[in-house]
Amino acid sequence: MRLIALPVLILFVLALPLSLVLRNMGALIFDADTTKAFVHDNLMDSELARSLARRGAEQLLTSEQEGGTSQKVITDLFGQLSEEDWRQITEIIAPRAMLDQTLGETIDAFTEWLDDAEAEFPSLSVDLSAWKASTIDNADELVAVFLDALPECGQEATQTMAQQSLIMQVESLPSCRPPEPQYSQMISQAGPLVARMLEPAPDNFDLGQITQGAEAPRELIELKTSLIQARTWLAWGWVTVLAIGLLAAALAATGLRGFLTWAGWPLLLAGLITLTLGLSMYVFNYRFLDQVFALLEDSPAISALAASAAGGMLQLVGGPLMLQGLIAAALAAGCLLYARALHQKEISPGIPIKRKRIGL
Fold this sequence. Notes:
Elements: H1 2-30, H2 32-42, H3 47-64, H4 68-79, H5 83-93, H6 96-115, E1 125-127, H7 129-137, H8 139-148, H9 155-163, H10 182-188, H11 190-198, E2 204-206, H12 207-210, H13 218-252, H14 256-287, H15 289-293, H16 300-347
Antiparallel strand pairs: 1-2
């Protein structure tokens, strides 16, 4: 039996750390709290939020006016904005509290959809009215960011702007920063302009109303089934690996001491490998990750986003991995120490007491 158990235990030493890595990655995807922590700590301050703000602003502006002139004005205007400008725009149109709440509701809806076997579609409802109201209330700050990013107007541009209508439209957005009083006049018209742009947008996005009475497509049903199976295997695969390893140790052993020895050494090696993997993830994250993604010089935005996402994944996977490795190594050390104590007891049964000689 040992000829069969030995290669199984060797595979166990390698499979247990891998199964724990997969378990932690599964928690990152399917555990709502872990996913929220990952998004909150690693994506909200990254290029992702600014990219979403840029695309959202472009769609809002181009939706009001269709035509080459309007599109050219918007392209030229956005070309003047720096990364710091987009950070300010993101904070104005997407406050952190609202963004966290919306993403939390979306993640919870996805988790509930997987947990409910009878649910065909995720029950997702997002209130957009607060977003619209916040953007309109802060419209003057939003337009000020756009205007402050522009170069100062020359004398000829200032005179031309003074002769034009003071009603601000998308196609009449300036290509330079006007002086006073035109600057203040444009800021004062920011509210009506933003309100006109946001008027076509809905106040609520309810997926339940959109899918009401509709049957889920076969592809979506198959996707849900596959996700549930993947979640189960990722969450409990390490238990299967551990059970196989203990069974192999039981087949190779001839008693309790032998079982503890055959189970202890493979579990100790697996725990040390798991601990090393966790530590290496932290070292790679803090020492080499930025250098690796810095090679993407052609796309700094993708580089920053990828580095932030990968760094968060390494922390959320590597942190639990170190703890799991320590627990496995501690359990293995306990098994080996107990096996040694049993061995010492077997070879040293003790000195028999002769009761008659001591008067008992």
